[in-house]
Amino acid sequence: MTGISEAQPGTSSTGTQVSISSVSMRFTAEHGEVQALEDVSLTVRENEFVCLMGPSGCGKTTLMNAVAGLVQPTSGRIEVGGAVVSGTGADRAVVFQDDAVFPWMTVEANVGFSATVRGKPKAEIERIVNHYLGLVGLEQFRRAWPRQLSGGMRKRVDLARGFATDSSVLLLDEPFGALDIMTKEYLQEELLRLWRKEPRTILFVTHDLEEALFLGDRVVLMTPRPGRIEAIYEAGFPEDRDMSFKVDDRFVELRREIRERMTEGGKS
Amino acid sequence: MTPQPSEMVEKTGLPAPTDDIVIASAGEKSEWRQGRYLSIVSLVLYFGAWFGLTHSGLVADFKLPSPEAVVEAAITLRSVIVGDILATVARVVAGLTLGVLFGVGLGLLMSYSKRAFYFFDPIVEMMRPVPVIAMIPFFLLWFGINEQGKLLLVLMGVFTIMVVSTVEAVRNVPRIYTRAASTLGASRNQTFRRVVLPAIVPSLIGPLRVAAALSFTLVVAAEFMGAQSGVGYRIMEARRLFNPDVIMLGIAIFGFLSFVLDTVVRKTTTYITRWSERTL
Chain B contacts of A113, Cβ < 8 Å? Predict the structure, then answer.
């Protein structure tokens, strides 16, 4: 099942969730115009886990911010669930690389934030908080302040807060980028487990090829200057994979293949 | 006036506490060992020097009253002084509270709305560099020696500090928090109330303490310019009647009052920002 796929792999009854059509983005920087994205098109199915992978400056974060509605593309259009994106919305929660857990709220207030601002009744908020705190295993820390938690635990709060929205789409921008390798791998497994229990459409930005391959159903390889999609790989490894799968032949083989493609791209 | 060594010790970076109870006792011990006792030494030296100087005959009584003379004055005047303290404290508390409310309020409005910012900014910037004390003649002209003038003086001084600090504090709120809030479905209004507001509190504590100290200075100025009660008024009266011991008593009361107010402000804000790293 590995290789470059141009067309949409038609699976089951799930529909298109995120549709990015011919999106280009130009910035005016100090030293002239920067073409951050050039004619990027990508379709993501419902509940699919797609990793945007590439070196820094390839526009992967810009693309994600455009889907989040934090920036507007210069041309092209982005649709989520059939509606054109024109700003941020509760259907697209974002987990950032930097610590964005609100330090002035307890863990439970953070996880319940989205439900609270969307005016859910108290009992419903309580239920949501309990459910997601349970999923990330932080029930006993519900009344703790974020500063009392480790970096990895704060990230779990952040993930729980993202999942605790009603968002059909979750946008994760290098969420584990600032963590040590042990914590990072642990959280990768956690995220997969969470996603399997509570399927969402996930766009996951990373510059870490192993991370992208381990997590994604598909890996979208992007190249810089101008930022565009170089290739799309089907990963789709066994559902029950854990860290040990990173030395599996299939994993190693695909990693080698992509690595070569990236090196070629660097030379050209 | 009174140094706060305990605070300095906290800020010089003891290792991050892991267990509140253990650290609390360890902190006290090391604070003492680090030289807390020197605070007592300095107080003894300070009062000793004062006592020695006034009893040596080097300085005339009317230029520097002795400590006992001040204590005597306090006992003789105790009934009037209590009324003076209440009058002064009422002015400080009222002026400070209103000044903070209006200052923070306008600062928030100016941060929330660009139009409000462009409308109020020139006025605030025009008022800011003017020492409010320079307005005293006008206040006398408008309000005589009534309370309104004194209140307005304190209010204006506090207001200008708080309005500028609030606008600045909102600017410094990390964008990641407001972005996260909006992608989690919070409206602009909700983001402001639930994210911006709590996020600026720690950076308003410094300005608030400065404003609290300033309100005492302004109350003295207001009471000097004309009043029928208040610690500042008592000092001016003592100057006229040539009672240096009462002047010194007034100064001591001001020192004590502003220490009490600062402690209240510090304790309250430390509780409010207990989520923040700075309270550790």
Answer: 181, 184, 186, 194
Helix, strand, coil percentages (3-state) for chain B, rounded to 5, are 80, 0, 20
Handedness of CA B183, B184, B187, B192 (dihedral sign): negative
Is residue A100 less than 8 Å (CB to CB) from chain B?
yes
Interchain CB contact of A146 with B (< 8 Å): yes
For the stretch A254-264, pLDDT in tens is 888 888 887 77
| Residue A58 confidence (pLDDT) above 50 | yes
Amino acid at B129: P
Distance of CA A25 to the CA centre of its chain: 20
Contact B194 A117 (CB under 8 A): yes
pTM of the model: 0.79
DSSP 3-state of A39? strand
Displacement of CA B266 from its chain's centroid (Å): 10
Helix (H, G, I), strand (E, B) or coil at A204: strand
Record the tokens describing residue B142, joined without a space.
Answer: 């408008």
Please answer whether residues B226 and B237 qualify as being in contact, where contact means their C-beta atoms are separated by less than 8 angstroms.
Answer: no
Q: What region, left, alpha or beta, does residue B31 occupy, with left being phi > 0 and alpha being psi -120 to 50 degrees?
A: alpha
The torsion region of residue A53 among left (phi > 0), alpha (psi -120 to 50) and beta comes to beta
The type of residue at B54 is T
Let me know: does A161 contact A99? Beta carbons within 8 Å.
Answer: no
Q: Provide the token pair at B62.
A: 């009317």
Asked if residue A19 lies in contact with residue A85, where contact means CB atoms within 8 angstroms, the answer is: no
Average pLDDT, chain A: 84
Neighbours of A196 (CB within 10 A): 11
Q: Is B48 exposed, middle or buried, given 0-12, 13-18 or 19+ CB atoms closer than 10 A?
A: exposed
- Residue contact A114–B177, C-beta within 8 A: no
User: Residue A229 pLDDT more than 90?
Assistant: no
Tokens 């709590």 correspond to B198
Cβ contact (<8 Å) for B187 and A161?
no
CA B118 to mean position of chain CA atoms: 30
Rounded to whole angstroms, the Cα distance separating A232 from A5 reads 6
- Mutation choice for A interface testing from B18, B183, B273, B280 by most A CBs within 10 A: B183
A37, containing H or E segment? strand A32-45
